Amino acid sequence: MKKAIYPGSFDPVTLGHIDVIERASKLFDYLIIGVLNNRAKNPLFSVEERVSMLEKVSEALPNVEVRSFGGLTVDFAKDCGANAVVRGLRAVTDFEYELQIAQLNRVISPVIDTVFLTTNLKYAYLSSSTVKEVAAFGGDISSFVTPYVENAIHKKLAKKRDSLGTE
Ligand code: PNS
Question: What average pLDDT does the segment 6-28 reach?
Answer without folding.
Answer: 97
